[in-house]
Amino acid sequence: MWNSYGFKDDVLMPNRFCAICGKTLGEDDPHFGMCLECYLKEHPLFELLDHLSVNICIDCGSFSKKEIWIEPVDNELFSIIKQAVQRFLLKSFLKRDNIDFDLSLNEESFIYSSKDLLTSLEVVIQGILKKDYNIKHQETIKLNLNHMLCKNCSNLRGGTYFLSIMQLRVKDEEQINLLKQVLDEINNFAEQTFENDHKQYISKIEDQKYGVDLYLSTHELLNYLIKFLKSKYNFLLKRTKKLVGRDKQGGKNLYRFKALIKFLPLSKNDIIFIKGQNFSVENITKNKVILKGENNTKLIKDYSYFFNGKIIKKKL
Ligand SMILES: [Zn+2]
Ligand SMILES: [Zn+2]
Fold first, then answer.
1. Domains and CATH numbers, the chain
2. Please, which residues have CB within 8 angstroms of residue 124's CB and are 6 or more apart in sequence?
3. How far does residue 56's CA lie from ligand 1's centre (Å)?
4. Which pTM does this prediction carry?
5. Is 1 a residue whose pLDDT tops 60?
6. From the CA of 45, how far away is ligand 1's center (Å)?
7. Tens digit of pLDDT for each residue in 176-230?
8. Average pLDDT over residues 249-269
9. How far does the centroid of ligand 2 lie from the alpha carbon of residue 76, in Å?
């Protein structure tokens, strides 16, 4: 029989010993003059740091290594630990997708704090090469868990967190029902958004004359809400951004965003008295109102025109 070197087996066989341990090499050991065991010691399938520190939020189970908190797929501690190891240690290997990993927690290594929180443990990581099950490797890492509150939960507990304010205003008593309707819809919308992403919520609602101020947990939620309202209502929108300080940890500037929303005090077919003449509201576009006079004259006005106090609406 001819082997891959082009010699007959019996020519080479007598000289084939492992260069490390001296064991006679068999046909299954084509690892550059080493037996499989010695080869794997020299070239482990994967190599990891022997320790890892992970922050875990006591309230929501989110985990982080530094600043960015990751929401876990499920909220069970052992599962969170495995997710953190996969994310922070095995990510690059998992991307290549050539090794099957199996993680187990060494219960004998568990160390608990005085408050009965698991603070330290060993995680055993076994890997096996997908295309050759003879090639495997095992490492044990020491994992430290820091139990704390994530940014979001500490803000939630504090109850004072807001970065964005949405001011909803109507012109007079007549529009109070509109305001109530809008608030109901906003509450539903915000609840659904919170279901999908716990960072998004309304932290406070303050009554104002002819309106309310909504304190929102994120600027994102403000944008979602504006988009949502735009699809249903006509209003004047004024946005402002104010520097309120610096984030102590990240050193970034902190801004407070404000959006003032003034609902147009008109609907289609309303009759309005302007400069001695009656006009009916023929159409309302994204930013203009198209009016039709008694003698068929057309008048096109910006929304802002109707907030100046000189409009007399006629009841039909
Ligand atoms: Zn060997
Ligand atoms: Zn949390």
1. 1-43 (no CATH), 48-152 (2.60.40), 159-263 (no CATH), 271-314 (no CATH)
2. 103, 104, 105, 106, 138, 139, 140
3. 43
4. 0.52
5. no
6. 17
7. 999 999 999 999 999 999 988 888 889 889 999 999 999 998 888 999 999 999 9
8. 82
9. 14
